[in-house]
Structure formats: structure tokens, C-alpha cells
Give the backbone structure.
Amino acid sequence: MIAYIRGSLLSVCEKSCIILTDSGLGYEVYLSSRNMQKIPKTGDIAEFYISTVVREDSFDLYGFSSLEERETFKVLLNTPKLGPKTALAILSIFPPDKLKSIISAEDERMLSQVPGIGMKSARRILIDLKDRLNFIIVGKARPEQDVSSIPVREDVLMGLTSLGYTPVEVSHILDHVLENEPDLDVSSAIRAVLREKAKEKAK
């Protein structure tokens, strides 16, 4: 199975990118919205840890910026009735450390922010994942700020969802804003995200 890919970024789609390796082969890699926000410019070098998902009618590659993220994805896939799209949606909103905290606290409300996961499903997932993520060792491929630890993030996310946005629509923008301006208060961060979202729609 493919475990790691490094090559030139050939093109970017809505939820994936194509990486051209030195061997001349191009691979489509599906990414979380958090990782889509971080991909380099077309033509630059991109690299991801890969989880290969093989099904009867598909052979899909899912890319991650760290081994911890990839291993968390694999644990999620072993959860009953939780497929790769939902697992990727979870990691689009919550990095591994934050997800561990949610599971430890049995916070159904937070987990139900993921599109397609209601309170009942969140409760089942929390039970299934209890103590299963603790074995994963933190080891990020490239240093990055854990923006989920910034206190205002959850308040900003709640404010944006009250405006009609889903977490998966704005989480990657919010993370980018807080990485660049970590001292923003809640109202300023909401305005900044709305500005970036407007620019995104205009493209």
C-alpha cells in the first residue's frame, strides 16, 4: 500500500489535489479542508502521509500532514458505520489533539458539529472511540501551531454557525485567520472570517 507521497503539485480540485511524482505517475489525493488550506502553489513540492482505502469499486488515497493525523484517520475508519468521507470531515474540523479532548470529555455537542453527525451518532462514536486514540503518539511532520487551543476558536465557530455557516465551510478559514492573528477577539475574528469567505466566493 502507498504510505507516503512526495512530488510536484500538478492541480488542485475542490477536495483533492493531484501530485506528480518523479516516476512520472500522478496521484489524486483527497485532503481535509484544513490540509487543503495549507497546500502549496501549483508546481511546488507537496508531500503527504497516505492512507489507502480500497473498496470493491474504488482505490482512494487520503493525505495527511502528520503521522498522528493519518493514524487517527485509520482509527476513525475502524469505527462502525463511519466511512472515509465522515472521518475526513471530522479531521477537517478537529485536529487529533482536539478530537482526543472531545472524546475524553464525552462532548457530544462538539462532535455533532460535524456535518452528517447528529447527537445520537455522536454518542455512539464517542463510546466506540473511548480509549482508542490514546495510543497514538504525537509526531507532526512539520511544526504548526495548534490553533484549536486558542480560547476564542469555539466561540467564533459558534458565532459563525449561528449566521448559517456549517463548521466544515469555515473551520479552515478560521484556523488560517487565527494562525496569522492569534490575538484577535471573538467579534474581530468573526469579521475576518467573513471577509475571507467573501473573497473565497468571489474566486
Notes: The radius of gyration is 17 Å. The chain has a mean pLDDT of 83.
